[in-house]
Amino acid sequence: MRKLIVFLILLGVLLAVLDRVAVAGVQSEVARQVAAKYDLDTPPTVTVHGIPFLTQAVAGRYEEVGVAIGKMTTPDGAKIVRIDAVLRGVHAPLMDLIQNSATASVTADKVTGTVVVSKETLNARAPRGLRVEGNGDDSLQVTGKVTVAGIAIPVTAKMKIEVVAGGVRLTPENVNGIQVPNASRLLSFNVPIKDLPLNLKIDRVRSTSEGLAVEATATDVPLRG
């Protein structure tokens, strides 16, 4: 009886070790595939959630995987501070990963994420003479000067943020100080945000102290290019 108990304890320890080793292997492979697909300078941080992991590995389906991507630039020039995403229903057959990880198909049923677009990107897209300010309280404003009929006019305006095709658009909804003729035309601008990693599509946008936090989703996402 004592030998059986010792055996069961050792077996449990062995399974626990294998579980953690397998987790590390899958996390590394998902990170490698995402980095290769989106040409990232630094592999993302990948965390497979759920215990025991081996049960998910045998099934080839992982309920929830966290992916954290650091600084990057999108093809349209938007500088991204970070992306924090959650992948649900990740399909990665264990034998495919073991036998030939280079060709293994890894997909996710659904992805939700937050993409932080830098204030540097907003300022680069703002009309000349204006700078973007945000305090992380869901408000965004521009300050600076606009030139009307050769005269530089100081202006401060609270900006409305809305999702448009291919990115977001900022338009003034409250202009302080001297009233500027054609304020909407002079102060409005678009920020292209396309071709995000993980096929993310913008749902809503809010202001943060770092720039814009874009809430995005995607379905049926291939993680390998």
Entry keywords:
alpha+beta, 225 residues, five-stranded antiparallel beta sheet, seven-stranded antiparallel beta sheet, 5 helices
As a whole number of angstroms, the C-alpha radius of gyration is: 24 Å
What oligomeric assembly is this protein in? single chain
Amount of helix: 25-40%
Span from first to last CA? 54 Å
Q: How would you describe this protein?
A:
- This protein has 225 residues and is of the alpha+beta class.
- The protein is built from 5 helices and 12 strands.
- The strands form 2 sheets. Strands 1, 2, 3, 4, 5, 11 and 12 form a 7-stranded antiparallel sheet that branches. Strands 6-7-8-9-10 form a 5-stranded antiparallel sheet.
- The longest helix is centred in the first third of the chain and has 36 residues, at 2-37.
- 29% of the residues are buried.
Topology:
Blueprint: H1 2-37, E1 45-49, H2 53-59, E2 61-69, E3 72-73, E4 79-91, H3 94-100, E5 107-118, H4 119-125, E6 130-134, E7 140-148, E8 151-164, E9 167-176, H5 183-187, E10 189-192, E11 201-208, E12 211-222
Antiparallel strand pairs: 1-2, 2-4, 3-4, 4-5, 5-12, 6-7, 7-8, 8-9, 9-10, 11-12
Brief digest:
The chain is of the alpha+beta class and 225 residues long. It contains five helices and twelve strands.
